[in-house]
Request: fold
Amino acid sequence: MKKILVTGGLGYIGSHTVVELQNEGFEVVIIDNLSNTTIEVLDRITSITGIKPEFEQIDLKNKKDVQQFFKNYSIDGVIHFAASKAVGESVEEPLMYYENNIATLTYLLQEMNANNVRNFIFSSSCTVYGQADKLPITEDAPTKPAESPYGATKKMGEIIIEDTSKVTGLRAIALRYFNPIGAHKSAKIGELPIGVPQNLIPYVVQTAAGIRECLSVFGDDYNTPDGTAIRDYIHVVDLAKAHIAALNRLLENKNKANCEFFNIGTGKGSSVLEVVNAFEKATGKNVNYKIVDRRAGDITAAYANTSLANKELGWKAELDLEEALRSSWKWQESL
Ligand code: UD1
Reply:
């Protein structure tokens, strides 16, 4: 049985990926510092799969703890989710973001190298493309200057990993996520809301639940059919499965370069108003909204060309927008 380290394994995408790893017969060790989640998620994962993953409460900023971890465990591959991800906060606290997302990545790669752990999956983001010149976005589209320190950490992360893979035995896959949404069908795990949501779907869901009065739609003067911005919303369970496909590619030596990049989305763009309508249709719930000014830093449209991931990873998104929105609503109700 292969043993996989999942950093940030109690977070939103991490927890769904742990479930899929266990479903596929992998043994999982989670590292999490609980900075943006709770230990209860460990029991919730266990209640879905019937298997309790091993867990170490470690902060990857503590290099000594990372060193000790790799002395204690024999690991076949690492899926690295642990990172801070709030765009606005990263603008206020850039050094915190560079320490949390970059210093930790270097420690992890150093210890992997020291212990001959070669297989690495990295959580990257479509944010590396900025506003792409061509849609849908292919992996060879040029990366653009980051709009925030958060975005910069994803771009830098890719560079650090690629440089490392040139001179060590590291074999890496960076998955560039489009917009992850939804929750596990059991409604036992999902995105934990902390404070006022910044992302669209949590805000929509909380508005429907009466927690928020009204959704602000940021801009209806974009150059899109209905004037609202377009994104590629992917079900988190499909996204989780992409990690298994990427991991298997490395474990089976099917990778074609030491460092590879794949878009992970559905390939379909939806506007903000289309999302609101799809949510109302999927759940029968009403969402109050008003149009307000654009949000600084937002782009007009982004959606993935997923051909490369389809072909090379043998992976394809299977769940549609309405199903994802229904699962988000079910998760909200369970809260
Ligand atoms: C955001 C981040 C991105 C990050 C991703 C993580 C920004 C500028 N980008 O992506 O770097 O990787 O989250 O999940 O923050 N919207 C509204 N009203 C709201 C919230 C959002 O109209 O209350 C609109 C936004 O303008 C956007 C769309 O909904 O057009 C999606 O927004 P969001 O869910 O925040 O994701 P991104 O901005 O695409």
User: Anything to note?
Assistant: The mean pLDDT is 97. Residues 85, 87, 125, 127, 151, 179, 198-200, 203, 215-218, 229, 231, 272, 295, 297-298 surround uridine-diphosphate-N-acetylglucosamine (CB under 6 Å). The chain has eleven helices and 13 strands. The two ends are 35 Å apart (CA to CA).
